Amino acid sequence: MGQRDWQGGEGVVKVLGAMAMAAAMAGVAGQILGLSPLPDLLQKNGKKKKKVRVYMDGCFDMMHYGHANALRQARALGDELVVGVVSDEEIKANKGPPVMSMDERVVMVKSVKWVDEVIEDAPYEINEEFMNKLFTDHKIDYIIHGDDPCLLPDGSDAYAHAKKAGRYKQIKRTEGVSSTDIVGRMLLCVRDRPNETPVHASLQRQFSHGHSDKGSSAGAGTRVSHFLPTSRRIVQFSNGKGPRPDARIVYMDGAFDLFHAGHVETLKAAKAMGDFLLVGIHSDQIVSAHRGPNHPIMHVHERSLSVLACRYVDEVIIGAPWEVSKDMVRLCFIT
């Protein structure tokens, strides 16, 4: 059994009594003992297993489904997920000014259904002092980050201390989306305007990475997207549960483009009106027809994942119609 296997959040091995003796005879015990100073995942004398608490931090600016997927993966490595939201000052010092305020970013993170606790004004670097505070005050077992490098202005690794302590775990970054990519899509929306300034043209080239949406098979208004939706990803985000027979079902629809704190508060209010919240996500064609050719920024599957990640949402209709017809009511609410 390797160290990675022993740490796995979904497959913690329970070694009790005679099983422990058998493992020792097989030469496994030495590897287990060699994992120190990692926290013990098993309790002695048959007591209840200690919950594994994992920590992940980030700026979470212009939060998108890639952020939500990272939090989903982090939560799968433990029993409770604590998320640190980096302060405005720390973001400015290390990356430049954030688009969203601290309050908006906290609302977004708290709305993700895989998040259990939030630490506001977290530092950008996991320094030794903050790391020890996580271990002692917040009872954190592991610190999580994506497989993309996170470097400080001096070129050093922001997670070096956690790695040295042996309390670091890594998840896979979600390909096809980033905050920079989204800014680029927004700039592409106005690239054909006749009064484009040199500054705007420069920004558009910087953020769009030279991509063009010509020939795109996406919706008429959807800009450049590298996201490839799969049924597996949708299942990962879904609750997988339907309403109870006696549940009061609430339906709400919309574009939910560039999912933000205002959307979250609206969905929270809608969920409070009943027991099961069903959200209709309008198709790219419908959004474009009602809002203009430069909309939506995010295509329908991206918008659906952002909504599905919200803790107040129970189910979504992907490509919901503009009008709520009798057939739709019969299909979604009766059968």
Automatic annotation (TrEMBL):
Pathways per UniProt: Lipid metabolism; Phospholipid metabolism; phosphatidylethanolamine biosynthesis; phosphatidylethanolamine from ethanolamine: step 2/3
For whether the record's keyword set contains Lipid biosynthesis, the answer is yes
Q: Which GO terms describe its biological process?
A: phosphatidylethanolamine biosynthetic process
Q: Which GO terms describe its cellular component?
A: cytoplasm
What residue range is the signal peptide?
A: none
- The segment(s) forming the Cytidyltransferase-like domain are 55-184, 251-328
Q: Where are the transmembrane segments?
A: 12-35
| Family, similarity comment | Belongs to the cytidylyltransferase family.
Protein name stated in the entry: ethanolamine-phosphate cytidylyltransferase
Species whose genome carries this gene: Ceratodon purpureus
